[in-house]
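Internal QA ticket QA-208
Title: Verify multi-chain structure generation after dependency bump
Assignee: T.L.

Test input:
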Amino acid sequence: MSILSGTVELPSRLRFSIPAVWILALAVAGAACIPLVYLIVRAATADADDWSRVLSGSTLRLLTNTASLTAAVTVTCAAIALPIAFLTERTNLPLAGFWRSITIVPLAIPSYVGAFAFIIALGPNGSLQDLLEPLGVQQIPEIYGFFGSWLTITLFTFPYLLIVVRAGLRDIDPSIEEAARSLGQSAWGAFWRVTVPQLRVPIATGSLLVALYTISEFGAVSFMQYETFTWAVYLRLTSAFDLSGAAVLSLVLVGLVAFVLLIDWSQRRRARYHRLGSGAARRPRLVRLGRWRWPALAALSLLVIIALAVPIAVLFHWLSVGLGYGETFPGLWSAALKSVYVSALAGGVTVAVAMPIAIVVIRRPGFLSRLIDRVSYVGYALPGVVVAFALVFFALRTMPVIYQTLITLIFAYTVLFLPQAIAGLRTSLVRIQPGLEEASRSLSRGPWQTFCHVTLPLITPGVLAGFALVFLTTMKELPATVILAPIEFDTLATTLWGHTEEAFFARAAAAALLLLACAALPMFLLFGSDRELRT
Amino acid sequence: MMEHPQTGAGRLRLPRRLVALLTITAMLAGVFAALGTADAQDAPTFDVRVRAQLHDDSRIEFGLSADGEILTPSRRFLPANPRVGRVYISTVVEKLGVQLQVIAIRQANGNTEFGIRADGETVLRGQIFPAGTAANQWLVSRIASVVSPDDPGDLVIYSGRGESLVGEIIERFEAQTGINVKVRYGSTSALALTIGEEGRRSPADIFYGQDAGALSFLAEEGLAAQLPPDILGSVENDNFKDDDGQWIGTSGRARVLIVSTERVAEADRPNSVFDLTDEEWRGRVGWAPGNGSFQAFVTAMRVIHGEAVAEQWLRDMIANDVQCRRNNSTQINAVIAGTFDIGLVNHYYRFRPSYDANRHLAVNYFPPGDAGEAGALINIAGVAMLEGTTNQANALRFIRFLLSEEGQTYFRNETNEYPVSAGVEPRVDLPSLDSLDPPSLALTSLSDLQGTLDVFDKIGLAACPDSS
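Actual output:
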């Protein structure tokens, strides 16, 4: 028997009560289904026009656009995230703690801010072209369309994969690699044949996060003028005010998401990733980079320059222009406080409610637990505004008292970002020997005690990873915050967006820079210090 | 060996960092709870005093300061030689719902006595402004404490207009009436749709939006209440209000071409949107098909010139390599950066501080009677009172305030828009509405907007949605 089961160990014929962990997991999965139920209710009122529009030729174009962007972004993110994870965890890279933290921060840049900065820096007649012109470069690739969307989304979402893979890498028992080495494998051979296969769960989970985020992404594609499915849903809403038409389109989107989830499902075979015998996880031996540290540092610097320095430089430029004409920045500090507060709360709550799902997925593999796991992705993959409307619909009809309070807002964040927390948790949980928990139970500890004393300390890297993911994503979340926050609860993201729309760029830049600082600081606290997190 | 958790007497041993994290979160929660309660206590009293100064021409100007805020009545001068003993009364200024007036009496000895009336009752008197006081220097009286009447209640506004645009005018309304105003800022379309989803349960009393499409969506959903005749009558132009009286425009903006003065000589500027399909402008023009203002403009073109002309114009523009952008400001950024030379935008963006400082931008208004008259379309920002409101009186008061001279002057001076009522004239550097000769066309029909989107779809125009 493993953790969090509400039953007492009885002879099997007497075991009839449902373990508490299942009840919790099913409740959370039920909440995650709210957007889907809403879409079906809304689509039921759609007329024939709405459905015929779906069957028109433009749907195929949207599907192709969305699929190609999603595939490209996911592959590129993996290509960026895996080497960084390895460099910062397993090598003697100088300033590893700094790189570990700084490479996560791009996640906090709202994609529309990034897109805006890239257009100014890399767009036609942008700063880069000005720099290159003396060298005879007249034309740089067109940033609008696929290229710009791919670049922007990749650079601001690869940390999803990075955080998850890194948590996975931390949990691998280095003795397996050492065994491979002692059996004659080279360092590379051990890496490819032992370490990478061990990372299968984190890579698959992180890729799924990136892929589904790309599908639901709106800010970057709207600035880059690239038509995806989410873009079409927004167009239906904002131009035609057509809620049922948008619901029909969203259901097609759900179909696409289901397809992606099925691919992922078929990829996961039953495999054990935890140690079976006794033994202690130790710190792995660091790979000495030697001369290779220079190209490694150069590559990391280049990435940080493009993903962070370019947007920050553009923001500082706007800020200095604004200070020049005496712009003021009212209300920023209180917005920053609210942002940090609500994001930390969202992170904590989401990790907590994700725990039962992660436990049943890892400890009780089977059709139902897989289904629960898949269902939790629905809110994450849908356009944020659709999820927000679903919760308006749901909260006002069931519990009007909590409508537009912090409770609904945190609930919305949980529905939106649940898979991120699950991803963090499962990569750690998959490594814990059930035997440890069983031993605790056999020593007459209750399920809750076992969870607190044994499981939780062992999965700390995963808890922190899940918290970081949800925290950063909440910092920049927009549609749910605008619609569901308590009234006059202005966060940095809403302030930033309002000023951007009204072309008060200096004020927007101040808010964006503060948002980055608020996001970066906790990341340095959580990941900056050395490897003391290892258990 | 695996590090064994300490098997102490069932105590929870959470990792240190988790404990720290939880502690910080709990502390923040405490701070917020404290802030929340501090916010709740709004004192219903305020302090007021008379301020007065002698001018060089021997007139005495007077006004009020209430809790430090200067209130300036429109009639506020004691003439140079007032009749002794006569009571001179200023016009009314409002603070927290109290109507304040200054009273002034010239005494026989040449001194002037000042006092204050609040809601018609004298709350301060006998404040002497001595004869022979030095000119051009404000003197202030003793303080009178004024209790505002019973709680004037609440007002909840969903505003699709940004806080940088309308925050100040809403604050002024709040200060004058004492009404507890709460505003949710967001994009016009998202907030209109939110109300559509909330229905009559909506916490909002007022919807304040950037375009007629969102307002007429609420009207068609039956969520906008009928406005009283005095409000509807204060805006004369029928294009700026709903045919059925369910919403009303509060300020207007002109569709214009923003032109780079660096790369387009004044003589070469196009006179009509129909000129933009000329070979001369190939690749040099930008537009934002996802933007509500642009869609309204195309709708107008379809109504005025017919479906065929509008569709052909769109096709010709695409064939002429028009550049697609997300909204007005991204077009202006592109004109500044030199990506293209002309953008189809709203006039007031030119006056944003971000663009104002010598950016080599010109605004081209379309002359009256021009073939491209749809280019001179005036769009409105406007308000609707929601059907489910529980604060009807306050909601109507807010709408009247926006349409008052003070509100309209604010839109002229601060947001650089066209006033629509109270006889307020537009900025001197804007052409008058009459000279623009906007097409006579009501912007209210959403079905027409759907027609425009269908045309976009038909010709495969990549319309870029505007907001999130």
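Spot checks passed. Chain B touches chain A through 82 residues (CB under 8 Å).
Status: verified.
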